[in-house]
Fold Lipoprotein.
Amino acid sequence: MRGKRTTTGAAVLVGALAVTGLAFAPTAVAVTPTTATINAGCGLFGGGAATLTATQSGTSATITLTSTAITTPLALAKDSIASKLTMVKASGGTTVFTGTKNPAMAAGAPVTVGPLSGTVAPGDRLEFYGGSLQMTVFGISVTCTASAKQSPGPFVFS
């Protein structure tokens, strides 16, 4: 009887350790990579290197664009840029991210827009090259396009 209790106790201990290990296991990142670099031309906003930062929660995703090379020609108030970011799907078609989120920016300041919101599906692979960022400020539209694919590669959503 004693051997049976020892075996049962060991099994319970192993099971408890396994459950504890799962509880402390790191969670998987939903989108990979979380950042990508692009080189974009944006008309009167200038052009150059920019960073895209992506997040995901289920089918909801956001992308933020920041750049020190792309600058505002005028001072802009917080949340005054209406932005539409069109990303190209590897499987065909596009996914659009929209919003009016931006910090207040002085004339000549680096541009930041986002987080811009969109809907993704598991397995979506999104690339900026072939898409665009359209920013509308004071009724004037400025369109940014990339000259090459984003690095290190497309955003892959899970």
About this structure: Residues 2-23 form the longest helix (22 residues). The domain at 31-157 is CATH 2.60.40 (Immunoglobulin-like). The chain has one domain: 31-157. The longest strand covers residues 125-137.
